[in-house]
Amino acid sequence: MNPPYAIDYEVIFRHAPVGMCVSVDRVIQAGNEVLTAMFRHPPGALDGKSFSVLYPTMDEFLRTGDRIVPVMNAKGVYSDERIMRRADGELFWCHVSGRALDPKLPLGAGIWTFEDVSAKRPVTAELTPREREVAALLVEGKTSKMIARDTGLSPRTVEMHRAKLMKKFAAATSSELVHKLVGVSP
Fold it and tell me: How far is it, in rounded angstroms, from Cα 73 to Cα 174?
C-alpha cells in the first residue's frame, strides 16, 4: 500500500530535527536550516564552506580529520561528541555522526548530522585546544593510553592534560571529572 502522499526527501532534509549536511572532502555542499541556526549562521551561509569554520581552531579541525579516517575505514560510520564553535565564537558540545557514501573515501562525499547537546553538557571552563580534545576522548570512555595512541601524545602528556582538567573542573577523581564533563552530578 502506497502512502497517500509522496515522500519528498528534500523536505525531510530541510526540516529534520537535527542539523544535517552533505559534504565532499570536508566541504559542506548543502546544509539544512537546523545546522545553520545551531552554528548561528544565516540560512545557506555554510554551503560551500569547509567544516573548519565549525571548529574552535584549525588544529582541532585537522586532528579530528586524522581521527575520523581510521574509524571510517574500519566501520564506514563515525560518531563522537566534541566542542564546536558557533559563528559568534561561543563554544558548545555537539554530537556529530557521519557516513561516507563511498567506504573507500572516508572523507569524500558523506552525510553528517549535528546535535547541540550543550543543554546537557555546558562548556563551563576555559580549555585549551588539547584539553578540549582530551576531554572529548575522556567522555568517550577512553583511557589515557588509548587517548595517547589516538592523539600521538605520550601517556604522560595525556595525564598532564587530565590533571589540568581535573583542576579546572574541581574534580577529585577521574570519574568525577567525566561526570562533570558530561554535565551529570556524581
Answer: 31
Instruction: Please name which of 26, 70, 68, 80 lies closest in space to residue 48, comparing C-alpha atoms.
Output: 26
Count of residues making up the chain? 186
What are φ and ψ of residue 68, in 5° steps?
-70, -45
| Own/partner long-range contacts of 10-17 (Cβ < 8 Å, ≥24 apart) | 16/113
pLDDT digits (tens, 9 = 90+) for 140-172: 788 888 888 888 889 899 888 888 888 888 888
Evaluated on CA atoms 60, 65, 71, 72, the torsion sign reads positive
CATH classification of 124-186 is 1.10.10.10, yes or no? yes
pTM: 0.72
Return phi, psi of residue 174, to 5°: -60, -40
The top-level CATH class assigned to 1-120 is alpha beta
SS3 177: helix
Decide if 135 contacts 83 (C-beta within 8 A): yes
Domain segments of the chain as ranges: 1-120, 124-186
CB-CB contact of 45 with 36 (8 Å)? yes
